[in-house]
Amino acid sequence: MKTSTRGLLILAVVLAVLPLLLPNSYYFDVAIRIALNAVVVVGLNLLMGYTGQISLGHAGFFGLGAYASAVLTANYNWPPFAALAAGAAATGLLAFVLARPVLKLKGHTLAMATLGLGIIISIAINNEGQWTGGPDGIAVGALSAFGIEVAGEKQWYAVAAVLLLAVTWLALNLIDSPVGRALQAIHGSEVASRVAGIDTTRYKVRVFVLSAVVASIAGSISAHYVGFITPNMAGFFHSIELVTMVVVGGMASVFGSILGAALLTLLPQLLSAFEGWEVVVFGAILMATMIFLPRGLVPSVGLMFSARKRG
After folding, report:
1. One Pfam family this chain carries (predicted)?
2. Hey, how many other C-beta atoms are within 10 angstroms of the C-beta on 172?
3. What is the fold of 26-271?
4. Could you tell me the residue ranges of all domains in the chain?
5. How far is CA 53 from CA 163, 169, 231, 242, in A?
6. Model confidence over 241-284: pLDDT tens digits?
7. Which of 10, 112, 180, 308 is the most exposed place for a label (fewest CB within 10 A)?
8. Helix orientation angle between 200-226 and 178-188, rounded to the nearest 10 degrees
9. At 56, is the secondary structure helix, strand, or coil?
C-alpha cells in the first residue's frame, strides 16, 4: 500500500473516531475550525510547498468565497450551494486572469504582488458597504440543500471532515500524477523544467487557480458555519496565519499542512492561560520550531526517523 493511501486511511479513521472523544460543543467548534483551516492550507501548500510560488494574499480568495455566499444568499435569495459554486467560479476566474502576470514574478516581488492582491480584495470588501456591510460585516444564512439544513455541531463536523478528506484525496492524487511531478520540477528549477519540455506557465497558472478555488469553497462553508463575517477574514493577518500553517506543518507535505493547521488553530486556545503574554509565547514557539525543525514538523520528523533507521 502506498504511503499516501495509508496516510489518507489513517486520517479517515481519526476523523471518524474523533467525534466519539469530543466532550462538548466547544471542542467540536475547535475541531471544525481546524478542518476548515486545513482545507485552505492543503490547497496553499500545493502552490507554495510543491510549486515554490509564494502567496501572501490567499485570505483574499477565502474572503471572496465567504462574501459571495453571504451576499448572494442574503440579498438575492440564492440557494447556498449555488452561491458557493458561483463564488468558487468567480474566484477561479479572477485567479486565472491575474495568474499569468503575477506568476511571472519571483521571490520577494511575487510575495509583494500577492500581498497587494490580498489588500485590494480586503479594501474592496470594506468599501462596498451597500453589498458587504462594510467594516460592520454581514450575517450569513444557514447551509441547506433540498430543504435539509445543516444544524448542530455533529452535522457541521461531518461537513468539515468530508470536505477535508476530499481535498486531501485530491491533493495526494495530484501530487502522484504527472502534473504533480511537473509542479515539483518547477519548484526545483524552472529553467531545467523548460528545457525538459514542461510548460511552466500553464502548470503554475493551474495550481494557482486550484488553490484559490479551494480557499473560496472553504470560505463559503466557514461563512455559513460562523453565521456572521467581517472583512478581517480576508485581511493580511489571516493570509500570514495561513502561510505560517504551511511552513510550520511542512512545505511540500499534505499531512504537514493538516498538522500545521491543527497546531496553529489550537495554540491560541492553549495559550489563553498566559494572560497578556499569549503573543510572546506563540512567537517563541514558532521561532523554536523554525530553528530546530527548519523543514517543518512532518518533514523534519520524517528525516529524523529515516536517519535513525539508517544508523
Report:
1. BPD_transp_2
2. 21
3. ABC transporter involved in vitamin B12 uptake, BtuC (1.10.3470)
4. 26-271
5. 24, 22, 25, 14
6. 999 999 999 999 999 999 999 999 998 887 777 777 777 877 88
7. 308
8. 110
9. coil
